[in-house]
Amino acid sequence: MNGPVTGLAMKILLDSAILIDHFNKHQVATAYLSLVHPEAVVSVVTRAEVLTGIRPHEMSLALTVFDLFPLLEITKEVADLAAQLRRQHRWKLPDAFQAALAKTHKLQFATRNTRDFNPAEHSFVTVPYAL
After folding, report:
1. How crowded is the C-beta side of 2, counted as CA atoms within 13 Å?
2. pTM
3. What digits encode the pLDDT tens for the residues 37-68?
């Protein structure tokens, strides 16, 4: 399902932590992914971060899971906004890209990273569960 995401009912950008939790067999993450699947997308950042930590014998399954979600790519507009957000919030660049993608596409950003993305400070952030 990778490719252009225009025209889809996108509502949620999944952070790496959510997919890592799924691959680490945390049932709450798997249940959340099942619930939001029709409205969820992943970014190239999430894909790269998660695939970096996947064991070779799990790679095929991981790629299959990623192919269930539309993929958001980084455009010039997103890159410029990420730079601004990084300066403003002192986020690491991958986090700034995630925020920029969420803001550009008017998505909720589903994460467990409340240290960098406090939902009380950032209205685009949602924390779907805690471990």
Report:
1. 11
2. 0.90
3. 999 999 999 999 999 999 999 999 999 999 99
Counting beta carbons within 10 angstroms of the beta carbon of residue 14, is it exposed (0 to 12), middle (13 to 18) or buried (19 or more)?
buried
Residue 80 counted as domain residue: yes
- Asked whether residue 74 is domain-assigned, the answer is yes
Number of domains making up the chain = 1
Average pLDDT over residues 109-116: 95
Burial class (CB in 10 A: 0-12, 13-18, 19+), 79: middle
Mean pLDDT of the residues in the chain:
93
Any domain includes 24: yes
* pLDDT tens per residue across span 69-110: 999 999 999 999 999 999 999 999 999 999 999 999 999 999
Would residue 7 count as lying in a domain?
Answer: no
Q: What DSSP line would sit under 19-71, residue for residue? A: HHHHHTT-HHHHHHHHHHGGGEEEEHHHHHHHHHH--GGGHHHHHHHHTTS-E
Domain around 119: 12-126
Q: What is the CATH number of the domain that holds 51?
A: 3.40.50.1010
